[in-house]
Amino acid sequence: xxxxxxxxxxxxxxxxxxxxxxxxxxxxxxxxxxxxxxxSGDTFDGKAGFIGGVHVNxxxxxxxxxxxxxxxxxxxxxxxxxxxxxxxxxxxxxELNMNYLSVPVLLKYRFKPIDLDIFVGPQVGFxxxxxxxxxxxxxxxxxxxxxxxxxxxxxxxxxxxxxxxRVDLVLNARYTTGFANFANGEDPNMPNDSYRxxxxxxxxxxxx
Length: 208
Hints:
Elements: H1 2-21, E1 27-39, E2 44-45, E3 47-61, E4 64-79, E5 84-86, E6 89-91, E7 94-111, E8 116-134, E9 138-141, E10 148-161, E11 168-178, E12 197-207
Antiparallel strand pairs: 1-3, 1-12, 2-4, 3-4, 4-7, 5-6, 7-8, 8-9, 8-10, 10-11, 11-12
């Protein structure tokens, strides 16, 4: 009995050692969710939008990972009352709608017992469109929005490992802080020379 127990313990130790040596796989995932964007300055109120895309999760060493992503993201803001004008006409119901292709590169640290990640990294946003929506749906091109936006991203990610499945469920919460002014300051409706995108986002995804 004693020898059997010793053999079992020995085999268990070998199994653990081999498991530690096996490299972790690269994970591919898709995610989608909701974000609330706020533009710095006193011209805009917050605005809700969609965020979604794909990511690749690379194990680096130990508990560290790198996760580049490509996300479609709706940003912008609602003009405060009487803040938007065309000529001499001021509009009470107007908003700035911006669509970006956002590319963050996240450095992640994983607390493995609970599969919780903390992450931080830079993000470059490539403008897809920028329009001012006025009244019942009239849209005007917002020519004063620059083509690129620079920001920093940080947040938390929880990975729920589904039993008997190769698919993991991923919950992600993040905050994006704009580093650069996205407007060129030539629009009379945006007199402040420092407009930055700040975004709170929540996403649900799967990873293979």
